[in-house]
Specification:
Number of domains: 1
Structural class: alpha/beta
Radius of gyration: 16 Å
Strand content: 15-25%
Strand order of the largest sheet: 2-7-1-8-9
Bound molecules: adenosine-5'-diphosphate, guanosine-5'-monophosphate
Distance between the termini: 34 Å
Shape: globular
CATH architecture: 3-Layer(aba) Sandwich
CATH class: Alpha Beta
Largest sheet: 5 strands, parallel
Order of helices and strands: EHEEEHEEHEHEHHHEH
Number of strands: 9
Length: 196
């Protein structure tokens, strides 16, 4: 079956937050969704194993690598990347459905994915969340206790490449004091959603 053609009402806005792993992107994204009921989370597809507490279709669509690759070949993704050994991608159907309904969408994707979304949708608002320093980033990742030493190392290895892309984003926000970072991001999102 082919996807329905994109008929945008022009009202739906796209907001993308990206950051090196451990910078606080998920924490900030959750708060944005709580504060902005008109903002919907864009559920990505992934091949990584489900974490405790995650919901299929809520946090991600969890696919086998074969199914993911099949969908790539069918052109189902706006963008996709291999990150830390797993595949992650933004489904065209998610974006089309939101835009058709005039809904705003919030994307939590990696830095390369964010830039791909901007190429496909130039009006998307791209926000880069920066850690205050590499030391703080590492401390936060260790304290989160979600990765073993090897996975943690892989996440840290990627950070210089990610930080180098930050100037390409529309906004950069340093997440030092969480409440301050949330207020800053909220103000950016609020102005973007108000735009005609
Ligand atoms: P990301 O989604 O970017 O990988 P998370 O939102 O999971 O990052 O944040 C990483 C860890 O750091 C979490 O345990 C989170 O509670 C914590 N954290 C986030 N922001 C701050 C902050 N400003 N100060 C201290 N800890 C933070
Ligand atoms: P996690 O495994 O911690 O949920 O996510 C790992 C990384 O993949 C994070 O940086 C997250 O933002 C990114 N990610 C999640 N979904 C997508 C997606 O659809 N596309 C891209 N490019 N990255 C994604």
């Amino acid at each position: 079956m082919t996807d329905a053609p994109l008929v945008s009402s022009g009202r739906g806005k796209l907001v993308v937050v990206a950051a090196p792993s451990g910078s606080g992107k998920t924490t900030i994204a959750r708060e944005l969704l709580r504060r902005n009921p008109s903002l919907r989370f864009s559920v990505s597809a992934t091949t990584r194993p489900m974490r405790r507490g995650e919901v299929d279709g809520g946090d991600y669509f969890f696919l086998t690598p074969e199914e993911f690759r099949r969908r790539v070949s069918l052109g189902h993704f706006v963008e996709w990347e291999e990150i830390y050994g797993n595949l992650y991608g933004t489904l065209q159907s998610e974006v089309d459905a939101a835009l058709r309904q005039g809904k705003h969408l919030l994307f939590d994707v990696d830095v390369k994915g964010a830039l791909s979304i901007k190429r496909a949708y130039p009006k998307a608002c791209l926000i880069f969340i920066r850690p205050p320093s590499m030391e703080v980033l590492e401390q936060r990742l260790r304290a989160r206790l979600t990765e073993d030493a090897e996975a943690l190392g892989r996440r840290l290895e990627r950070v210089p490449m990610e930080l180098a892309q930050a100037p390409l984003f529309d906004f950069q926000v340093v997440n030092d004091v969480l409440t301050k970072a949330i207020e800053e991001v909220q103000s950016i999102v609020h102005s973007h959603l108000q735009k005609s």
